[in-house]
């Protein structure tokens, strides 16, 4: 049964949705970290803002490299922590390390017995007097380490760790649960979500709080509601027993003064066809406010009803204070893949800008029951383009424009929230990766200014009817792999690599290792049986099984309700590999959330080859977010193709400084001060640019030691 929604033009109190609040909370005193450190994911207040002022628009152009630390070959998205002169981070295989933050000298490295190949975006640090702990997610485990030595603290959990697969349902061993974004500390709790598979079976989303000393679970909030819980009626009866997803993979933020945990959630499994999950599917695609002490729901807002586009909230929200009618209001702002900014009063969930429920196209795919309306904020205006039209196609060359126009004429395209169809490609604009991405925005928390980078290119996707009689290896592939690598196995490189000819690049054992351990954006698939995995490897290496092979697939057979499957992610590119839409292809914006107007908006990044031809400042795909300082400087890497690290004037958007990194800076930087010298550090890796140099490193920048500013 689908929950009731208001269909008036402007919703007041929409964030409360159909459930009543679970009550008020006691306030708590926020712990204050030294302003010279970067002690939590996102900084002191998880707003990616630093009160440091040494670096300013006048001197930032003097920055030089201070030190560099090699982190191995592979992907690196870590935003490190800095506490008491020590920097903590991950290598590309998720070994945890500590460095002298002023020199980059290694202090210790802790290999915890399991190589991790998932994104590892940060760690968590807790201190109470003389007691301190460093928390690290490695594979499906949450470890507590001694920050001074890196050794596990054996009286935490099971000999130093917690198995995050346990306690969600009866299928502990087969649950896919990875802590790609770090947990958040609140008093003596660490609160965590997890990443899971986006195809069946996916673990059911949940938020859990563990005692930082013992590892005992103190509370759990089911993001797929159980009988009697708020939101249960937005799913089929007893869906909680079999449904998956609706998980908080992007991380969360805690308002310590009010004791509120703000949790952004992902989409439900399967991402693109929801015939077996009729209803709005709370708390998928939602911002959920929980009492941080107890896990009780305070309020929620669902950003996409019955998501069939993978439009999950991609990053933690940010906390800031805005001014309305002379009154200061504590607010929480959530950016989205669609390019929206939703802004709410923290304690009540009241929208600070009107939100409209707009009628959207209805799916005509058999079995699908899409939502008739979707919420759209009336302000601020979207920071990414919303509808692809012929006049927005590339004009880079006449040939590229003609090819784009021909392809565009064949697409299904009814604007935002156009349902995918079978047999035709549907435009998704901005693309499946956003809009906003996992790096998240930065804010000036007192001035109420939000800074957000965005992708602004089109992708396409479609549906295909599931074959009634699937051959063995092809069936496993279609059920588990085609969602990312495509029905044709061509993928959408570099995010989703082609699997054509993979047998020439990897052995069968290497393919099996990736299948069961995951790598990069790919989660592991422990639920695939050994026999099914063997058939899959044979299919990939031999380009398909024999025509007579009709063997049943056991638990890897698609469920009867999954009559349609996603054909794969496809970027809309021209023949030369550039976006087939007109620039800008990536942007950076400053938005005043006091009144919703834009202070400035600029292209972010460029393609060196095009720049050499005179086509500059096109913007480019970008992953990783900005930070902003009280000195008035915004720092961001993020851009893939040019490998630049840049500094902008936070007030005007003027570029003040840039340098070329050894690899792309697809991580959010940090800043801190030691001995009167302000440092800025960013993690860089070549994983998203396979044509460029390969490797990874943490690179630190600071003013020269002889700078007059340092002497001041």
Summary tags:
four-stranded antiparallel beta sheet, 712 residues, Cytochrome Bc1 Complex, Chain D, domain 2, 7 helices
Structure characterization notes:
The structure is a single chain. Helices cover 8% and strands 27% of the residues. By secondary structure, it is mainly β. The protein has a domain at 467-557: Cytochrome Bc1 Complex, Chain D, domain 2. The termini are far apart.
Task: Give a concise summary.
Mean pLDDT is 89; it is low at 1-17, 23-33 and 544-561.
Across the major sheet, the strand order is 1-33-34-35-36
Mean pLDDT: 89
Strand content: 25-35%
CATH topology of the domain at 467-557: Cytochrome Bc1 Complex, Chain D, domain 2
For the record, give the distance between the C-alpha atoms at the N and C termini, rounded to a whole number: 66 Å
Shape: globular
CATH class of the domain at 467-557: Mainly Alpha
Radius of gyration: 24 Å
How would you name the CATH homologous superfamily of the domain at 467-557?
Cytochrome c-like domain
Query: Quick one: biggest sheet?
Result: 5 strands, mixed
CATH architecture of the domain at 467-557: Orthogonal Bundle
State the low-pLDDT regions, or none. Answer: 1-17, 23-33, 544-561
Give the class from helix and strand content and strand pairing.
mainly beta
User: Please, how many helices?
Assistant: 7
How helix-rich are the residues, as a percent range? under 10%
Total strand count, please? 39
């Amino acid at each position: 049964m689908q929950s009731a929604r208001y269909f008036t033009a402007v919703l007041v109190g929409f964030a409360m949705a159909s459930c009543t609040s679970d009550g008020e909370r006691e306030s708590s005193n926020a712990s204050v970290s030294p302003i010279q450190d970067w002690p939590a994911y996102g900084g002191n207040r998880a707003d990616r803002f630093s009160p440091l002022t040494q670096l300013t628009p006048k001197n930032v152009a003097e920055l030089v490299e201070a030190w560099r630390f090699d982190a191995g070959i592979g992907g690196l998205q870590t935003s490190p922590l800095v506490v008491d002169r020590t920097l903590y981070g991950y290598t590309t295989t998720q070994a945890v390390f500590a460095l002298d933050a002023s020199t980059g000298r290694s202090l210790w490295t802790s290999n915890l017995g399991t190589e991790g190949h998932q994104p590892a975006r940060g760690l968590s640090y807790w201190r109470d007097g003389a007691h301190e702990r460093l928390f690290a997610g490695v594979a499906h485990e949450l470890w507590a380490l001694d920050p001074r030595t890196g050794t596990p603290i054996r009286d935490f959990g099971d000999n130093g760790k917690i198995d995050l697969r346990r306690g969600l349902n009866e299928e502990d061993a087969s649950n896919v649960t990875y802590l790609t974004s770090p947990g958040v500390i609140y008093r003596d709790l660490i609160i965590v979500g997890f990443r899971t598979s986006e195809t069946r079976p996916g673990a059911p989303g949940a938020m859990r709080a563990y005692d930082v000393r013992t590892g005992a679970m103190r509370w759990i909030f089911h993001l797929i509601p159980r009988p009697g819980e708020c939101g249960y009626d937005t799913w089929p009866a007893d869906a909680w027993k079999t449904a998956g997803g609706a998980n908080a993979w992007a991380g969360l933020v805690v308002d310590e003064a009010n004791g509120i945990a703000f949790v952004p959630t992902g989409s439900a499994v399967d991402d693109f066809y929801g015939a077996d999950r009729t209803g709005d599917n709370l708390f998928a695609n939602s911002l959920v406010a929980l009492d941080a002490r107890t896990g009780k729901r305070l309020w929620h807002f669902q950003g996409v009803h019955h998501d069939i586009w993978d439009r999950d909230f991609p990053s933690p929200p940010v906390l800031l204070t805005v001014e309305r009618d002379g009154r200061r209001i504590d607010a929480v702002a959530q950016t989205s893949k669609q390019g929206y900014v939703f802004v709410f009063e923290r304690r009540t969930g009241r929208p600070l800008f009107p939100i409209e429920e707009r009628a959207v196209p209805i799916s005509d795919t058999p079995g699908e029951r899409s939502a008739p309306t979707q919420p759209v904020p009336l302000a601020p205006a979207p920071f990414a383009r919303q509808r692809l039209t012929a006049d927005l196609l590339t004009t880079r060359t006449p040939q590229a424009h003609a090819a784009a126009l021909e392809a565009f004429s064949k697409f299904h395209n009814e604007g935002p929230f156009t349902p995918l169809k079978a047999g035709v490609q549907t435009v998704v604009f901005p693309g499946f990766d956003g809009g906003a991405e996992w790096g998240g925005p930065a804010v000036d928390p007192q001035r109420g200014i939000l800074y957000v980078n965005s992708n602004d290119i089109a992708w396409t996707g479609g549906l295909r009817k599931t074959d009634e009689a699937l051959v063995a290896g092809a069936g496993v592939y279609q059920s588990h792999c085609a969602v990312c690598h495509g029905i044709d196995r061509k993928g959408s490189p570099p995010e989703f690599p082609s699997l054509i000819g993979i047998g020439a690049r990897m052995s069968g054992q290497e393919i099996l290792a990736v299948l069961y351990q995951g790598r990069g954006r790919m989660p592991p698939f422990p639920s695939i049986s050994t026999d099914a995995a063997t058939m899959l490897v044979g299919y990939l290496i031999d380009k398909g099984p024999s025509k007579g092979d009709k063997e049943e697939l056991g638990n890897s057979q698609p469920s009867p309700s999954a009559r349609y499957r996603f054909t794969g992610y496809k970027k809309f590119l021209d023949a030369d590999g550039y976006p087939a839409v007109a620039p800008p292809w990536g942007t950076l914006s400053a938005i005043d959330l006091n009144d919703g107007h834009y202070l400035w908006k600029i292209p972010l990044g460029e393609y060196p080859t095009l720049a050499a031809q005179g086509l500059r400042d096109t913007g480019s795909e970008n992953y990783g977010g900005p930070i902003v300082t009280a000195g008035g400087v915004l720092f961001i890497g993020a851009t893939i193709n040019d490998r630049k690290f840049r500094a902008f004037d936070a007030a005007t958007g003027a570029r003040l400084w840039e340098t070329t990194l050894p690899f792309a800076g697809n991580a959010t930087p940090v800043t801190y001060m030691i001995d009167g010298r302000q440092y800025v550090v960013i993690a860089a890796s070549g994983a998203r640019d396979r044509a460029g140099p390969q490797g990874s490193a943490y690179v630190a920048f600071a003013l020269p030691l002889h700078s007059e500013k340092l002497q001041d």
